Amino acid sequence: MSTLSEAVGPAEPTDTPPRGLWRQGLTVFCENRLALVGLGLFVLLAGVSFLGPLVYQTDQVHTDLASVHLAPGEQGHLLGTDGVGYDQLGRLMLGGQTSIIVGLAAGVLATIVGTLLGAIAGFFGGWVDAAVMRVVDAMMSIPSLFLFMLLAAIVTPSAPMLILIIGAFAWLGPARLVRGEALTLRSREYVQAMRGMGGTGGRAVRRHIIPNAIGTVIVNATFQVADAILYVAYLSFLGLGIPPPAANWGGMLSDGLADTYSGHWWLLYPPGIAIILIVLAFNFIGDGLRDAFEVRLRRR
Amino acid sequence: MSESIGLTARHSAPAGHAAAGRPLLELRDLDTDIALRRGTVHALDGISLDVAPGQTLGVVGESGSGKTMTALSIMGLLPPGGRVTGGQILFEGRDLRSLPTDEVRRIRGVRMGMVFQDPLTSLNPTIRIGAQVAEPLRVHKRVGRAEARDRAIEILRRVGMPRPERIVDNYPHELSGGMRQRVAIAMALVCSPSLLIADEPTTALDVTTQRQILELIDDLREEFGMAVILVTHDLGVIAGRADRVAVMYAGRVVETAATEQLFHAPRHRYTEALMRALPESAIRDSGGHDRLISIPGLPPDLSGPLTGCRFAARCSYVSDDCRTTDPSLTPGAHQHACLHPVPTPAGAVTGPVPARVEPAAEPARVEPAAAPARVEPAAAPVTAAPAEVTELPVLSVQNLVKNYPVHGRGLLRRTAGQVSAVADVSFAVRPGETFGLVGESGCGKSTVGRLSVGLERPSAGQIVLDGTDLTDLTGRERRRMHRQVQLMFQDSYAAMNPRMRVDAILAEPLEIQKVGDSSARQARIATLLDQVGLSRRALERYPHEFSGGQLQRIGLARSLALHPRLIVGDEPVSALDVSIQAQVLNLMRDLQRELGLAYIFISHDLSVVDYMADRIGVMYLGKLVEIGPAREVVRAARHPYTQALVDAVPSITPDRAATRDGTTIRGELPSALDPPTGCRFRTRCPRAADICTTEPPLAGGLHQVACHLPLRPEPTGTPTQVQAVG
Amino acid sequence: MARYLIARLGQALIVIVLVTVIAFLILHLLPGGAARATLGKEATLEQLAAFNHEMGYDRPLIQQYGMYVQRLLQGDLGYSYQLNQSVLEAIEQRLPKTMVLSLLSTLLAVVLAIPLGVLQAIRRNRWPDYAITALSLLAYATPIFFLGLMMIIVFSQVWPILPPEAPQGFTVAELLADPAGLVLPTATLAIVTIAVYARYVRSSMIDNLNENYVRTARSKGLSERRVVLRHTLRNGLFPVITLLGMYLPALFSGALVVESLFNFPGMGQLFWQAALKRDFPILLGVTVIISIATVVGALVADLLYAAVDPRVRLRGSAT
Predict the structure, then answer these.
(1) CB nearest B36 (choices: A6, A8, A203)
(2) Do residues B597 and B567 touch, judged by C-beta distance below 8 A?
(3) Residue B160 CB burial class (10 angstroms; 0-12, 13-18, ≥19)
(4) Do A154 and C272 touch (CB under 8 A)?
(5) C270 to chain A, minimum CA–CA distance in Å?
(6) Of A9, C310, C147, residue with least CA distance to B132
(7) How confident is the model at residue C317 (pLDDT cuts 50, 70, 90)?
(8) Does the pLDDT at position B336 exceed 80?
(9) Are C317 and C4 a contacting pair, CB within 8 Å?
(10) In a 3-state reduction of DSSP, which class is residue B359?
(11) Where does C90-308 sit in CATH, by number?
(12) For B682-698, what is the mean pLDDT?
């Protein structure tokens, strides 16, 4: 795009007051309307899930076989009830809490583990790098759902267990990403310039590699969260999710599958749509963050 | 390629065409806008230009002047968001803007051809050369496959490709940059167009290759009888080749005239300033150097409304009316849009000027007569070679060798070997001296720079800094010593962490070397900013908010932070426009005088090195082939390679530009994986003889050369004393 | 090229060995170890000890791994007492059907994703691009089984033209004899794949359309059509070949869900049933085989890419 930059000419020495990088990044993020939509969706879904029960109180512990499969609106159940008499809206809120917490925790765990291993591989290089990356290659060639199910078949899944399982095996992507990033950053001219001033490898990592890699890591983390939410849903659908009375959207959706032919639409669509919206939300946020962290986007 | 097409031939042949009536191409009041996220840039504003059949029009300007946009507007190849919003593009009498698209496309494919700047990316990597070259024939002339192939071979032969019948089946990445540019030219010419547009065709190439390509374009113009629009930032490239020149600034044509006329007597103050900002304008024949006349400030932002002369803000001759009146081009053959033009020198022809002016026998130099008040008095000439040779060198490099192992993995047909990047190089830099290192890409000059600042360890040899041999030191001690030597990069933006503010960037060397406390560092940073001429407001900003020249100042400030005695500049001004380059070069010289700095100035650009350096070393394929006082190396080169470099440098001085049959080197740079035995240059040297298979030592007194058959002996009278360079 | 081939083969081999190590470790980390996993919860301690001795599971771990590999090489993946069948036999029955499902949906996805991605690239930031991007994102965010369910509701319930269940044929031929039953599972798996591929094709094409060589092609007066078809398309599609390999794990994960939903008698369903019944010999055997399939698939894709792209073919480097 050399022609374009030529047309624009050199950047003017700006007379606008100096702004921090975070402020500039925030501006870019806010210019991305989808990112704002994603943020709004997340706040809405999380708000309803975590604060909703304070307003809309339901019994999600005891089954109520007297009032199963009530249609929305009946007996004050805004979204009806399910096959064992739980209020569907209340259950969506409870399920949302689990889905969001498990998704966030697993995504963050995967990111932390992956970042550490990727950074170690990228920084030390040589045989450490080769060893870590071959293990990553091997684990990546095992389709993740097969791996998760294998583990879920061994241990009895609970929310913390799911977080551990997903977190412990979803780190491959971030590890590969961070390693690549560390390798590129290590050869950047500003790191070399610092070396020329007599700087050490430690300083390169602290002052240059981490601050520049952090954006990539955070962006990837949002996608990891979206994936983790989907994995929880898959495991629940395949009967290896968190057992009741605990609820999550994936489990509710797979329960609702049984009701496909019975016309109990309120058991099927709300959790399905909730999953779609939360996954979309994290994807939108991730895209927006990617732009926001890209300093070069702001040059010209 | 015939070598003997001299000036007369070039200037007489197409002369008839100009008078023959209609121009081939006429631009009338062309406006082009480019829509960007942050607003619309008015890239071209009322461009009017004529190109006669068979004529070469040079379009020259700095970044953002609109020269490339003009070319792209004619070709209908504007980038996304770009649009011609007004005016006419009359080609052979028809307005391309009002013709149907299919028709325009045909004209573009058959009657016009274009050559782009970067030959490495301009060819499709997955289509064979022959198919790409012949494609216009296949598409526009419905030529069959077999005939197309023959015609491709034919045209490739005419652009000087060796073994064209084999090249047609190659892919672009199998060829060197210069060869790819020949392919691009062949592709543009395959339909015998009447207009060739060459947009910076040689900017990405080495000077010796540049010379070959420019001569090729010239010869082909003759042969095909076509017109050429040569777009470039380099006044020197235009000076030797074009019939007419249009100078562009900030989206406008500010001056247009016959080439000789323009270079002999520029009228617009911008043209004048631009020519005087060239390093070659400041090199006095007497030996001293004048201070470069730089143009302050930056070109205007073309996205906002502009009133008055667009150069007013940077002009030394500005008056109030310049800021309010929008000057238009004066009528006549020598047009300019300046309210206070340079007075016509006595003897020059005024009024209607013949389209072609024979080169004056004794062309007058562009004298900075009537120096404006703003220009500082010329600096005291720096002595060509410091007198006290006894002084201990800041840096002395002895028998330096750097080999890079080639990893076998993924490399085909090549056994794992090593690239000989630097082979047995020795030189010394004395305090306060500028040592210039020139050579073409791949000669190892940058590696020498990186070795000198300790970014890489040599494979063999010594680096002696202030009398201490660094190769004996431990890592920590070496780092401490390296405070003395700092590196200045070509691309300062890449050399600065984009997430650090300027204050943090400038503080970093002080923190690393644990210099002073926080307030002392603050004070030091403030001093540094003053020294490089930036305001304190820069401190709170990030690198992406600065222009190239400003970034280079910040980079220089950072290099200075630790009070080094030597700064290694690796192509420090190569990415800058001429006017900005002059600012940075002046700054470097000022700081050298103030702080007693020594420089190693690495550049591919001989004219810049000539201006900056006291002594020059010339490198070829990892070897130092010549070293000596700058003046002598440039004006009395002893090595054939140096002479070829000197001859290839485009110059705005007509007599220099006119010498077209000096030492021309042919062929391609051999691989550094397997360099030629003996003299590494012998495979391309016009003087090579049997003796050249043995390696020539670097021999001589102050002006040494590594050649068995030097072009001239070392001038007598120079002390034949061997320096630190063993 | 030969060098690249050898390097790439060696890499694949190492990965396969590591996969077996991982599977082996998981088997031995199980509570009660391999014996419990094979014989089930009801087995007595004596039975377990006898089994362990018979299989050599009382020997050092390294030796056990050696035996495990030896058995693997002989095609012995263990025995499922729950199915009363050797694991290899069970997989041999199911694997071809999973391959049919995966191949069909990949084919469908490639055929649809390429024109969609190209359309997006040449109509960048205009409504066709936005519409396809939105649909892709939606497809990506929807759990596959929910998507499949929607398909069932629309095409077998609301508008009953297709069966909601996959054909239950024993052989591949029987499976293919009932093409209508294959439509929904294939389409469901393909939709998510299309979303991923189209996105990739789009960005690859956009990258190529921004290249200087495209400008050169336009300067030759070529029609937009020729610029896209002759110059950009092949360069833009070369990397898609590697994507086919990289996407295999996700494709197989998707197939697992789809097979479970549509009761498709493939390896995914086998795996799913085994997971519910804690039939570990099957679980581990399928995991190893599917991983090897992934590695081999990726290898084939990489080699294919190297064979077609002259830049790689002649230079011999993948990057």
Answers:
(1) A8
(2) yes
(3) buried
(4) no
(5) 11
(6) C310
(7) very low
(8) yes
(9) yes
(10) coil
(11) 1.10.3720.10
(12) 87
CA angle B503, B506, B512 (to 5 degrees): 120
- Pick the residue of C145, C154, C286 with the most A CBs within 10 A to test the interface with A by mutation: C145
Q: How many Å apart are CA A174 and CA A182, to the nearest integer?
A: 12
Cβ pair B694, B678 in contact under 8 A: yes
Token pair 């395949």 is found at A238
Rounded to whole angstroms, the Cα distance separating C210 from C162 reads 44
Q: Domains for chain A: give ranges and CATH numbers.
A: 19-58+75-299 (1.10.3720.10)
Least Cα distance to A6 among C216, B548, B66, B78 occurs for B66
Q: What is each CA distance from A217 to A23, A124, A129, A173, in whole angstroms?
A: 19, 19, 19, 10
DSSP state of A209: I
Interface confidence, given as ipTM, is 0.86
Do residues B639 and B697 make contact, with C-beta atoms less than 8 angstroms apart? Answer: no
- A24: which 2 tokens? 């500039």
Q: How is B309-331 classified by DSSP, letter by letter?
A: -TTGGG-TT--HHHHH----PPS
Question: Would you kindly state where each structural domain of chain C is located, as residue ranges?
Answer: 2-87, 90-308
The answer to whether the Cβ–Cβ distance between A142 and C291 falls below 8 Å is yes
Q: Which residue has the higher pLDDT, B389 or A74?
A: A74
pTM for the full predicted model: 0.83
Per-residue pLDDT of chain A (300 residues; tens, 9 = 90+): 333 333 333 333 445 566 677 777 788 788 788 889 999 999 999 998 888 888 887 777 777 777 777 777 777 777 777 777 778 888 889 888 988 999 999 999 999 989 888 888 887 777 888 888 888 888 888 898 998 888 888 877 788 888 888 888 888 888 988 888 888 888 888 888 888 887 877 888 888 888 888 888 888 898 889 989 998 888 888 888 777 667 888 888 888 777 777 777 777 888 889 999 999 999 999 888 888 887 655 543
A172 contacts in C (CB within 8 Å)?
none
d(CA B302, CA B309): 13
Nearest Cα residue to A205 out of A217, A215, A213: A213
Q: Distance of alpha carbon B157 from its chain centroid, rounded?
A: 28
The 8-class DSSP code of residue C153 comes to: I
pLDDT at B24: 92
Q: Which of C26, C252, C298 has the CB atom closest to A143's CB atom?
A: C252
Distance separating alpha carbons of residues B709 and B638, to the nearest angstrom: 9
DSSP state of C266: S
Asked if C221 and B113 come within 8 Å (Cβ–Cβ), the reply is: no
Beta-ladder partners of B56: B228
Checking if the pLDDT of B57 tops 90, the result is yes
Q: Please report whether residue B409 resides in a domain.
A: no
Domain that holds residue B153: 122-187
* A190 contact residues in B (CB cutoff 8 A): 494-497
Say if B177 falls within a structural domain: yes
Q: What is the pLDDT of residues B413-442, one digit of tens each?
A: 345 578 888 988 999 999 999 999 999 888
- 3-class secondary-structure state, position B501: coil
Q: How far is residue C265 CA from its own chain's centroid?
A: 16
Q: Tell which of A150, A222, A257 to mutate to test the C interface (max C CBs under 10 Å).
A: A150
Tokens encoding B428: 């010394």
Q: How many CB pairs under 8 A join A and B?
A: 128
How many Cα atoms sit within 13 Å of C269 on the Cβ side? 19
Tell me which chains share at least 3 CB pairs under 8 Å with chain C: A, B
Inside any domain, residue B302: no
Domain count, chain B: 1
Segment A32-77, tens digit of pLDDT? 888 899 999 999 999 988 888 888 877 777 777 777 777 777 777 7
* Amino acid symbol at C106: T
Per-residue pLDDT at B324 exceeds 80: yes
- Which residues on A lie below 8 Å from C274 (Cβ)? 153
